[in-house]
Write a structure and sequence with these properties.
The chain has 189 residues and is α/β, with parallel strands linked by helices. It has 2 domains: 136 residues, Rossmann fold (3-Layer(aba) Sandwich); 44 residues, no CATH class. Helix content is 31%, strand content 18%. It contains 5 helices and 6 strands. The protein has a 6-stranded mixed beta sheet with strand order 1-2-4-3-5-6. The longest helix has 19 residues. It is globular, with a radius of gyration of 17 Å.
């Protein structure tokens, strides 16, 4: 499905001054309400763009960010200084949306997948936001690693080499049954 809603590309400043990238699909209603989307690990806001049309909610503004080190946001690929920094980034993003677009926290719904859902659930616990609702799809509270001793091996490798990037082992055929969407995932740099 091709996207039909117009998208604006912007940045916002986080608590430590980092400018993170986000996409905004404006709604067509006078009453300001929105959905804020948070992507899976190893992904970016562009992977969620199709939802702006597929949700079928033209009255709602829709926002999606690129977390630190993902997509068009700066930083070492896949890296965040800490879980706490990423969670605080969410609070900065929600505050930015409220202040910049005049959308009350009570009129914000949050949709998050996988690692994004873990960050959002932590944010909900730590900040107790007064948002309309949270939809947490398949939160990755624990990732199943298929290689024996993977966690101890990764800890050892981190001690020896410092930060490093681990490519996702999740294949597109496990994310969607749509062949066109699978091809899009496989071609996404």
């Amino acid at each position: 499905m091709t996207e039909t809603r117009k998208v604006h590309e912007r940045t916002f400043k986080t608590h430590d001054g980092v400018e993170l990238f986000y996409r905004h699909w404006p709604g067509d209603a006078a009453q300001k309400r929105c959905i804020v989307m948070f992507h899976r690990g190893h992904e970016h806001s562009g992977r969620m763009g199709h939802l702006a049309d597929e949700l079928g909610l033209p009255a709602f503004d829709i926002f999606a960010w690129d977390a630190r080190g993902h997509g068009r946001s700066p930083g070492q690929r896949g890296y965040s200084p800490s879980l706490g920094a990423s969670v605080r980034d969410i609070q900065c993003f929600i505050d930015h949306i409220a202040a910049t677009y005049g959308i009350a926290h009570e009129d914000i719904a949050v949709l998050a997948q996988s690692v994004g859902a873990v960050l959002v659930s932590t944010w909900a616990h730590d900040y107790a936001p007064k948002v309309r609702c949270l939809v947490l799809a398949s939160p990755a509270f624990k990732v199943k690693l298929y290689v024996p001793f993977a966690r101890p091996g990764l800890r050892l490798l981190h001690k020896l080499r410092g930060n490093f990037f681990v490519n996702s082992y999740v294949k597109s055929k496990f994310l969607t049954h749509d062949p066109a969407r699978q091809a899009s995932y496989d071609a996404d740099p």
